[in-house]
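Posted in: Protein Modeling Q&A

I'm a second-year student putting together a small comparison for a lab meeting, and my supervisor asked me to include a predicted structure for Vacuolar protein-sorting-associated protein 24. I've never done this before, so apologies if this is the wrong subforum. The sequence is pasted below exactly as I got it from our records. If anyone can share the C-alpha cell output, I'd also love a short note on what stands out.
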Amino acid sequence: MQSVKSFLWGPDPEAQKRKCNALVRSNVRKLDRDIMQLRTLDSKTRSLILAASKRAQRNPSQAKQAAQETRIFARELIRVRKQGVRLATSKAQLQSVQMQVNEAFSVRKIEGSIRASTGIMKDVNSLVRLPELTGTMRELSQELVKAGIIEEMVGDSLPD
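Accepted answer (user: helix_wrangler)
Welcome! Here is the predicted structure, written out as C-alpha cells:
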C-alpha cells in the first residue's frame, strides 16, 4: 500500500527526511570510528618515536638508525594528524549538510502551511464585505462611546 501511495502522490517528505538523516548519521559514526583509530595510531606512533630516541641514547652505535626511524615515525605522525584534521572537517561538513536538509524540509512544511492559510484568507475575504464591515464597525464604536459616556455619568453620580 505504501508503494502505491508513494507512486501516485510522490514520496512522503517525512520519510525522505528520516532517510537522509539516517544516512548522514551513519556516515558521521563511520567518521567518528576512523577518527578514534587515528588517535590510537597517533599515540602508538608517539610511543615508537620515544622508544627510538631512548634506544639511540642508550646505545650510541645504533643512534644513526634510530634517528632515521624517528624521522620516519615523525613524518607518519604528521600524516596521521593531517588526516585527523581532514576527517574532523568532513564530519563538520556532513553535520552542516544534515542541518541544511532539516532546514529545507522545515521550510517546505512552512510553505505548505502558508499556502493553506492564504487559501483560507481568500475565502474569508470573499465572505466578508468590506463596506458592510466598516459600517458595522462605525456603529459599534458609536455605541461604545455612548456606553462609555453613560458609564462615566453613572460613576460620577453614585458615591464610592
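A couple of things worth pointing out for your meeting: The first helix runs from residue 2 to 9. The mean pLDDT is 86.
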